Structures are given as C-alpha cells and as structure tokens.
Amino acid sequence: MPRKSVAIILLLLVFALGAWAQTPKPKQYKLSGTVRGTWGERLEGAFLVITPGDKGVLTDKQGRFSVLLEKGTYKITCQYIGMAPLEESVTVADDKEVELMLTRTNFKLKEVEITSRPVTDVNSTHMGSSFIDQKMLTRMPKLLGEADVLRSVSALPGVVNAGEGTSGFFVRGGSADQNLVLMDDAPLFNANHLFGFYSVYNPDILKSYELHRSGISARYGSRISSILDVSLRDGNEERMKYEIGVSPISGKFSADGPLSDKLTFLVAFRGAFPGYIMKLFPNRNIKNSSGHFYDGNVKFKYKLNPKNTISFSGYHSADGFKFPNDTTYQWKNTLGTLKWSHLFSNNFTGIATLVKSHYANKVEGIAIGEEFALNSGIDFTQLKLDFGYFGLDKHQLDFGGDAAVYLIDPGELVPYGSSSLNRRRLESDKGYETSLYVNDEMTLTDRMTLSAGLRFSQFAKIGPSDTYVYAEGQPRGDVNIIDTLSYGAGEVVQTYYGFEPRFSFKYSLTDNTSLKAGYSRTRQYIQLISNTAAITPVDVWKLSNKHIEPQVADQVALGYFYTSPESWYDFSWEVYYKKLYNQIDYKDGATLLLNPTLESDLLFGKGNAYGSEWMLRKNQGRLTGWVSLTYSRSFRTIAGNTAAETINGGKAYPSNYDKPVNLNIFTDYHLWPKWKMTANFTYTTGRPVTVADSWYWYQGQIFANYTGRNQERMPDYHRLDVSLNREIIKRGNVEYSGSFSVYNLYGRKNAYSMLYQHYYGEAPAAYKLAVIGAPIPSINFNVKF
Amino acid sequence: MRMLRRLLPFVLLLLMGCIDQVDTDLSTQRKHLVVEGYFTNEASLNYVRLSYSQPHSSPYNEFEEKAVVTVTSEEGEWHMFLYDRQGYYFPAPGSQAIGTPGRIYTLNITVGDQLYQSKPVVMREPIAIDDVQFEVAEQTFAFPGEREKQLLPGYNVLVDYTDPAEEKNFLRWSFHTQYEVNTQPWDYIHPFTGLPAPKECCVQCFLDERLEQLKVIDDRLSNGKKVLRQNVLFMPFEKYLGVKNKLTVYQHSISEEAYNFFRILEQQKLATGTVFDPPPAEVKGNITSVNNENEQVIGFFDVSGVSARQVVILRNDIDYPVAPFRYPDDCRVMKNATMAIPEGW
C-alpha cells in the first residue's frame, strides 16, 4: 500500500478512536499536580492510583499529572522507584492543584524496595523499555572500580554488547549506530572512555536511565533501533553536599546544593590515569603506551517562578591514548542542554530545549617520514519544543517538534615535519533534520489503553557537495564515474522525508496482567561508517546523501505482562519482528578513511530480525533480582547489481549482531545488615565470523582463504561478576560507602575475535583472542558529606 | 606503597588478553589451485609458483608439478616456464623472458585438461628509487623454524622516490640479499647424545635469499610528491648483518588490481584481533578457470615495471652494539649456504 494512504488511514484511526472515547459525562473537575522528590526535583514516570475508581495516571517529563474526577473525596497513592509510597486524601469540589512530595526509602533490613517500576509495566502502554536508577546501577558489579551505564545496558533483555573493552551495544539485531545515546537530551557520537572500559556517564550524578527498544514514543526519533535516555540529577535544594570517590586508577569529586532559594547547582569531575601503572610494566610496548581521560559535568536549575524553570546541563570530556612511536588518538565531547519548562495552565505544559553536541577527534601519526595530524568531528545543534496537554478526559496528549543541524567534518589530513603525505581535506557533510510529532495516550475503557502517535521527519543534505554519478550496471568505483554534479554552499543536494507511525496498545486481563501490542516505524539519516567490531575513534559518521538512503525500520511487538499481588514478582514476555531497510555493509578490503568515493566501498541491502524476550523479576525480600532470556535472530541480505556488490550470492546471512541466545541473571542478596552481595551472570551465543575454507602459501607466508561472510560462530560468551557492597555508614553528616567487585569471577577467556595463525610445525589453525582472560578484582570507596 | 607497586602491575597484567586455539568446522574445507605469478622487466624476478590450498587439518604442502606454464603478450611474445622444484616454474633456459613496459601480458596454465588464464595485465613504467637509507629499529621477527616472534634489533630499510603526478601509482617491493655468516662449528652439540661434538669445518659461508615484505602503497595521499624514507623492510642484525650484506631493493610499479589484491593480504597479515582490525575479506585474484568459471582460483598474475638499487652494508659501519651471530654448527648446513665467495665480493 502506498506510504501516504497508510498514513491517512492511521490518522483517521487516531481521530476515530479519540471521538469514540469522548462520550458525554456528568460534571467533572480537574485534579492536577506535580510529584517531586526529596530534593525538590520533578519526578517523571511516577505512578498514581486514585481510588475510588482505580484511575491510574503517570507523570510526564515535568512531573505533572492531570485527571478529571467527579465531585468527591479520593485517596491518591503515589509510587516511584527508590521512594517510599505516599498516600494522600484529596477532596475535589472544584478544579484542584496538589503538590506531592515523596521521600527516599529509609534503609532497613526488611525494607520494601522497588528495584524497578513493576506496577507501571503492567498498567502502562510501555513495552520493550527498561528503567534503571542510580541506586540499582551502583549495586551492579564493577569493572576497574566503576559501575557503568553502558555495561549495565547489555544485561537487559534484547541487548548484546560488541565485546570486552568496547562500549558499543546492539539492540534487537540492529547495529551500534542505530542507538540514540543521550545525556540530558544531548546525543553522543562516541560514548567511550579508555578503550570502552568506562563510559561518559559519571555514576555518582546519574539519576536514572531508560532504554526503549520497542513501543518508542513519537517524541523520539533519529535512530531506528533504540533510545538510551540518560538523565543526570539536579543539584539538591536542602544543603551543600560533597562526594569523593577513589579507585586504583580513577578519582571523582562532585558537589551540589542550593545557591539561593531559586537556584541549585551541581558540579562533578572525574579522571582516570592508568599511565603510572603502565610505566611499571617490563614490556616495552605497554610501558611506552599511555591513556587517560577526564570529564566534568555542570548543572544549574533556576526556578524563576512556580510556572517557569530554566535549567542547564553541560558536559566536557577529553580522552587520549598512545601506542609507542606510532600514533596518538585524542577525542573530546562537549555537550550542552538549555531547557525552559513552562506551565501554561494546570493542564498544559511546555518545554523548549536547545541542545548542542560537539565531538572532535584527532589522530596524530608521529613516525618519521609519515608525520600527520588528522582532525575530524561532528557538530550537532538542535531546538526542540515539547508540549503536554491533559485537558481532555482520558487523553494525554503530547506534541511538538524539533529542528537539527548536523555538520560533519570528515577530516583534514595535515602533514608536517619530513612527511611525504599531501594535505587533504574532504568536503564537510551538512544536513538539516526537522520533525513534528503528536502522540495521544487514550484510556479507551477501564481495561484498554491506546497510545497512538505519528512523527513526520524530513532531512535535507546541503551543499557544498560534489556528487559522483556512476555508470549504470557497473560496480561503483572511481573508474566508473561518468559525471560529477556540483552543488554550491547552501544548495539542497537531496531531500528525504517520511511518516513514522507509532502505536502501542494495552489490554488489562486482570488487575495484575495485561497484553500489549506495538508497532513502530523509525527513520535514521546519519550512519556510522565502520567495519570494525566496535565504535572506535577512527570511525566516520556520514549523513544520508544521493547514494546513501536513510535507514528505516518497521517493528511489531506483542507482550504479556504480569505482576504478582504486592509486586513481589513480575514477569514479562515479548516477541518482536523487525524489518530494516537500507542497511550498510562493506566491500572486501573497503577504504573508509578520507575516501572521497566512500559510497563505492559500501554495500546496501535489507535486514530482518525477530526474537522472543522473557523476563522474571523478584522485587522484594532479602533476595531481589531478575532472570532475562532472549532468543533472537538478525539477518542481512545484500544483493547488488553486480557480483562485486553482492554478499554470499545475495542470500540472507547472519548479521554481525546475530547472537541467538542471551541469558542474564542478576541477583542482589542482603547478606548482613550492612552488606549486600550482587552477582551478574551473562551468557550469549558467539557472534558470527567469517571463516576460511583452506590455507595456502603466498610470498613465503601462510594465509587463510576466506570466502563469503559470517558462516560460522565464535565460541559462546559467558561471564560471572560478583560484588560485595558495604551500604552507607553514617558518622554525623558524613556518609561512607564502598564495594569490592570481581569481574569475570571464574576467569573465562571469552573470545573477542578470531584469527588464523600458523606456528611452525603445526597446521595453520583458528585462534581466539580474549581481551580479558582472568578474574579482575577492583575496589572503590566513596565519601559523602 | 611498595606493596601497591607490586600489586597494581599484577592486577593490570590480568587484563592482558591471551590467544587460544578454537575448533572450526572442517567439513566445509576445500582445495583450490594457488597461482603466484610474477612477470617484470628484470629476468631474475620472473617466476610462477603453483600449489594447492590445504584444509586446516593438513599441515602439508602440495605443489602442482606437471603444469604447462606460458606467458604471452598481445604483441606476440611467448615465454615458456619450466618446472624446477617445490612448485616453482622458471623461464626456460636461454629464453629471453623479460617484459617491456607498456605491453600487455597474460599467464596461461594447463593442468591436465583444465586451462587457467589470467586477465591481460599492462606492464607499467618503473619508478626509479632515488635513495636507500637505513635506521636502527627494534621489531618482532621470527626466523624460519621459530615458533614465536621475538623482539630483535635491526635495520629498517627506507627508500626515497618521486611519485609521478600525472597518474595513479601503486608500488610494492621485493628484495634479494647476499650475505656472509661466521658460525661456531667447534661448539656443535650432538642432537641425540646431547654431548659436545666439535666439528672442524666450516666457519665462513655465503647465503642467498629472496626477501619479501607484504607491503603495498598507493599515492592517494602523496600524489606527485617526493616520498622520503618509505619504510619497506626490516632486517635483523642477527644473521643478516653479522659481517657483510649486499642488498638489492626492487621497486615494483604494479596495477591497481594487484594493489587491491596485495592490500587485502597485507591486512590479513597485520590483523591482531583488536578493535581496529577490519573484518577478514575474500582475496579476489585475476586468474580464472576457462572451463569452469565457478572454480575459485587463488592468486594473482602480477605484471610490474621494476627499478632496482643495490647497497652494501658492512657490520663495522653499524653504530649499534650487537652480539655476534651464534650458530654452533658447520655453516654449510644452513639453507642455500655455499663456501664459494660470490663474484665481486
């Protein structure tokens, strides 16, 4: 069916359902309000149940909710992760505004702890999303003394990671660049620190994160596989607080508090300097290598008046590492988010956000005769407007739009010294992305809720640009260029646009069980050009152009959700099917760096992925945790016009992200009054690899004869991590906490990659390389005052 | 603090990766003809080697000894190559198998009733070597027969040349070395008894070796420039530079297809399994089976215009302290060793 007709039918459906839901009612009054935490921060996603009537409502991004009620007295029960549940009685005789303040759960041995949002999972239309807060994260086992957001993401259902020492992750059969990785609304283009052992998120100032894998709200766009929405906490409104943390190779400091009644701030610094340890090594290569990073966050929040709040979140990081006498790599991330939240009325909120993300990368060659500096980077600017309207009974309306400018500098090679290289600069890659969205969450009946959304996105690739025209029927390559189309600065080279319908539907079977279904179409106009296993500092980001069409994904998902009475257990089961269009793979021996005819080294095709994800969680008691099991497959089909542009004869082959079985077990056991023990076990099928069908001699050396792609698999991956966490000790105003972790407890030598090697006297054979081949203990210590 | 200094390297050492053998499915293993063909304007560099690729369960070499090998040109040249040993075919004695830049050559191989043919390849004009220099360096290196590479001091061989601006150029290098070794036959230990069994002869020998370093470059980033100190070879002091070495550097001006072929081989050799490795790639050669186009033939007929430069290195000229070459045996047992002093030594 043509795309336009589908969109029209969907729109009609949205309005029809809306009209059906709006049958005349007796006189109703509006109860609205804000839910705040201990420090005055607005809580998004707090769940309120209003009885009698058992109306459930979730707070929006601003912590606001609104519900229409008949005259009477009601009991509001409000729940939020890590907070003690609050009950409050309200009498409604007119439109009424309430302020609900939640307090943190006090620590007791037999505490009732909510480790996730079990209630909301069953009652909301949300599916395929996982929520982790800071408290949960810091209890997970650490590597090199630090809990890490990106590492913890790969313990979630449907997520596998790219390998040890990399922070890339793959969601439901998609590649690493198909995940929108956010920090306070700003996108990151390289979220790595120190070879991926750390990521850009400082766990001390993390508020929470949510990973959306399906049922992605129309509010989000730009990437087709997932959205990792990470929020950092604001400065507290009570008093100045400080926190210091140390581990053997890193140090952290943060401070936050009120500057006035209206203004709070937070600053945090972190740095890791493993260089001094590397110097102690006898091995020359390690001794002369070095690596470091530091980063800092700053946040301000200014409450202008009850209706207006302005906040700023800024981040800067610098990374470097060097191999002896060879090459140095440096990269910097600078992010800024300026947000103005405005309350138009009790049922109408708005947020204007200005986002800036700047990523700069420098590779420097220091070998004599080949000295060079290669500078590249991305500059991203975005303005977003998001509105929430709760004025219609049984409707929660979100709408808004955004406009973004991408400016990619693919690199300038600057030779110096005795270098024989030529100066070379590739033209910059510029594009505008704009989008509009509307999403309506409709309570159709007591049991049925439908969230219907539509997003329209448009992308324009902007000149200056020289676009090559290749001879038809010939493999793309510089020998087959028949013409060059030149576009001047500001000229539109190519435009792409399309609708992105999103639906999720919930039907409550009982108070504790529900069935959900979702459909989403997502579009992506920027891609990471990398044929290595992980996101590395030498990868190239590229915007869609005449030859590189936008990536599109269609996903349908079905789910069953259950929460036991009092939320002791919850269980979910989701199945999904995904179709991916305009997927990129690479020609054999592709040249990606500083290549003006990059498209001639790329191959384009389709993908499909399907899977089933089960998750069982225990939320209360001495032992809490979860077991998640995923069975999924992911394939690509690259059938080009010529044999050189076809992979595996045009047949579907397992993608690099195809790891069928993925089992994660996380347990958190209350050992003694002040001690907790957590353990994390991961098992995944090995990733597909290209293998050789024979070996041969050439030029006096032995080679493997690779044919085709991804016919076999690496050995399976499994690992157990444990952590012993000392809970907070209070001495006056000072709080101490610490943990001891062992990563890879039983020392499994998990294969990171496979290669063929020949040792004299033996047949050439396949070998696996393990990045981490032994248990890694680490310790960390935090002081708060 | 001393404790910490001891503990921390240990902790980090645990992070260090390790390499272990894994099993792969051997049922899908195949045998293919492997053709290594070189044709240049320098007679001594022209040869064809025919072998068969082997399954990973077999450690043995298999050579094709009964093929009929010819190189023909569009200008009517016809050069016969005859079998020598170990899969090598050399131009027939007395034949003038020397290529001319600008001409187009084809390799023809007949094995039984199967005919294999290369695509026609143009011999490109050679690019002169302006200078050959050396610098002391340390690199990991394994002599034939050694299981593990070891870090050795030696010379990096660096060439200077001027890249022609008017066309795309692709280069690779090959080497011929003649060198003198002094061994210690009096320290010979009998391999079975383990007892000293001094030999009386011989100390001084001369060896001849062809050295290859898989390295190709294009002029994508250096077109039209004078290229200085292009590193093309590493020669450890041990063995090669114990007394005297006469090194000939051949600079091959190769085709773009040959460049792509050798580059993928080079990538495979450089792969260490880190995040920076490109994935393994299929090496596409320029030789096909005329009777069966689905048959995969591995290898390339590389036709190149060659320029050469010879340099002599004396041990005494090297400003680096190196222990003398240790070889406690008769020098004549070394591969290709002779006691005859080469002409002009």
Automatic annotation (TrEMBL), chain A:
InterPro entries: Beta-barrel_TonB (IPR000531), Beta-barrel_TonB_sf (IPR036942), CarboxyPept-like_regulatory (IPR008969), Plug_dom (IPR012910), Plug_dom_sf (IPR037066), TonB-dep_rcpt-like (IPR039426). Keywords: Cell outer membrane, Membrane, Receptor, Signal, TonB box, Transmembrane, Transmembrane beta strand, Transport. It is found in: Cell outer membrane. Residues 288-745 form the TonB-dependent receptor-like beta-barrel domain. Gene3D superfamilies: Carboxypeptidase-like, regulatory domain, TonB-dependent receptor, beta-barrel domain, TonB-dependent receptor, plug domain. It holds the Pfam family CarbopepD_reg_2. GO terms for biological process: siderophore transmembrane transport. Belongs to the TonB-dependent receptor family. This is Outer membrane receptor protein involved in Fe transport. It comes from Pontibacter ramchanderi. The lineage of its organism: Bacteria, Pseudomonadati, Bacteroidota, Cytophagia, Cytophagales.
From TrEMBL, chain B:
This is Uncharacterized protein DUF4249. Residues 1-22 form the signal peptide. The lineage of its organism: Bacteria, Pseudomonadati, Bacteroidota, Cytophagia, Cytophagales. Keywords: Signal. It comes from the Bacteria.
